[in-house]
Records
---
Amino acid sequence: MRVSYHAGERFLQRVFKFTDYTKKHVLNAMKLIEKDISHIEYRNANFVLPSFPNYRCIVADNTLVTIIPK
């Protein structure tokens, strides 16, 4: 599953409460998310983010598109 740039931004904003970040921060967040969900098998269009259970991942067309609070 791919992780969108938007999901990386939302991860930084919502999980870590960042207001300012660089492109490098977002790319690193995307890598962290990819690593965290690499073993997930999902059946629905959303699932709980394993390391951050208070957040849900929203998936469309095999791409994680955003992260929202649970």
---
Amino acid sequence: MEIKIVEQKSLLKNEDIKWYLLDEQLWATKLQQYSEIEHSIENSIGSFNWLYDVNDTVLFNKFNHSLETVIINLSGKTSVDYAENSNIRYKNNKIKGNIFLYDASYMNYEFRGKVVYSVSQDCLYAFQKEKGTNIIFLFVTDDFGFVVEDGQLEGWILKNACQHLYLEDEKITNINKKALAKYLNAIEMLDNDNSEGFERTVMEMDLYDDSFGKKLKDLLVDMQ
């Protein structure tokens, strides 16, 4: 997806970023319900998933082409990085601003690459770290941004990911990141039909006796 970067204030703010753990989706939008997003399609351009379920939703205003809504599918894509020094090098080429769609049309678009949750950095992202040196990290809010290379949208990044975590419509606080990582491991095993690994990981959730860890275990047990 070809985009233009403009160093101006984005429509979106940090409170518009929501990581829906159960739905396995990341939302960046002012809108609250999917029905509202469906109604916005007629005044939008960009990518949406009506025709092709694999598409991510990346919608721009039809009239000024500025970014308005992003819904990223995380299902079957998320893995965990436990490295203590998970080196995501974005600070030296980070800017704040907004993106505009270059080609005013509808298209099929999906963010490529594995989605990774870094426990040490509390960062959720999807981009190829081995790409070239001319990558720009364009943050449209303090925590959420896009990876852009040569004018092409190549990925995304969410800092302070746990601060944006929701179970259904409830924002979650006091999050145990290790319990969250174990939960994500279990979901990955379920997606890969690794029933033995899934059941073992569910049992390991007993290590986390805080309310958040117990809630995640209950969710996993319901999936068995």
---
Amino acid sequence: MGISDGEAVHKKAGPRLDFHMVEARGAGDMHCRIVAENREKYPMPEHKMWESVGPIATSDMIKYAPEEDMVTDPQYFREECGYKFCNGTCAEYDAASWYRPNGSAGGAGYFWPLFDMLVKKGRINEEDLDRAVHCVMEAAGKAQFGGWYAVEGVRSWLGVPAEMKDGRVMGGFLEVYLACQGVPVKVEAFNKDEVILRIDRAALDQRMPKQSPAYVAYWYGMTKTLVSAEYALWEEPEGDAEKVLRVKIAKKIDKFC
């Protein structure tokens, strides 16, 4: 529902859709189906979000899949589907392209309608929002590798030599992370003194606003624990900053004063 609202708010994509979980796999019901309706056309009494389970206005549209007819693999792993996922709007993806940049952080869409409403009502302003996003994401990044076992686990996974304890550890991690997201990245510098990565901003933002600053704050916090408190990650923009997020990882004195 948050993703739908986010699209409507930021893209004026049309009326808000109300989602009802007819059957909830997350609640232990393996028959999971979600039905969305335009409440301007199909009005219903007001209800709380957590009450959005069960019969809805057009209950005749609810379909029940017997367990014996269910499949266990997604379309892109099934021969009868040509190893491709295809939806009702004719979008097609195979297993290699399914984890595409514009579909990997949809959860962020749940927050933007709330933020938009709070700004419009004057409860917060854009500066408050930017500050909150920065503080939350930086703290989350520091917590990511708060335990020594987490640091050693990442170093072992990446195959980092024991003697390497500089910005290349975070740089290598970021390269792998971005590759998994399908986000294009180019290496400008990668040595013991500095790591500079040029990241495709549009792919990283994933069609949602304010993603890049949130990522930078998150990665800054991660650098502090994955590498050491002497190191930092920050943006050093150049002329193509609208298209490229240029981040640097190096030693930096960064005091709150």
---
Amino acid sequence: MRKFIFIAAAACAAACLFTGCKKNVNYLDYISEKRTDIYLYSDDGLEIKIYKSEKETPYSADGIKGNMGKLCEIFVTLPKNAETVEISVGGINGEMSYRAVENCYYISAADGGFDGESASVTLVCDDESATYTAQSVLYDGVMNCEQAVKCVIDYNTELFKSMTTDKLFDGEIFVRLLYDEGCYYFVGVCDKSSKITAYLVDGERGKIIAQREING
């Protein structure tokens, strides 16, 4: 009986090696950055942008996926710069830092503590307080990050095959929601030399609008 079990197990192992047990690579496992939502408010020279993401920490475009964590980034542009800008939205409360190059104020946190269609944002600029409603750019019919990556995989299967060895993908993938009077996705495929093959994907139809290479 034991001999029969051993022979059966050996036959099963051989079948797995040579026939039907081969598994395809799940390229979605190699996503190291996902910008999943954007909230916007703009009026009279005041602009609020909120990016909600999952991102490797520390972040490095080196073709290797690191440990992922949630990230909420907020950018505020004022019609007139203030000495101090404090913000309160969801679970984020604190003083924003000024970025001279972008001429905006910035704060980030591990988790914004909010989701849904809108976010209530309170700004205190030099002791003057006001509350604004930032709206999510997502709307019905917009695909998610994973679907955008699948569109790129279907569009350039050969690239992914060329970066796959022994059922392992030799790179990492960035996918970022963008908004410009409609939703789009930036999808970047990064190899170990930090070369990024980038795609712009229509957020509704999944059509590849543009492709370019970026050398890191």
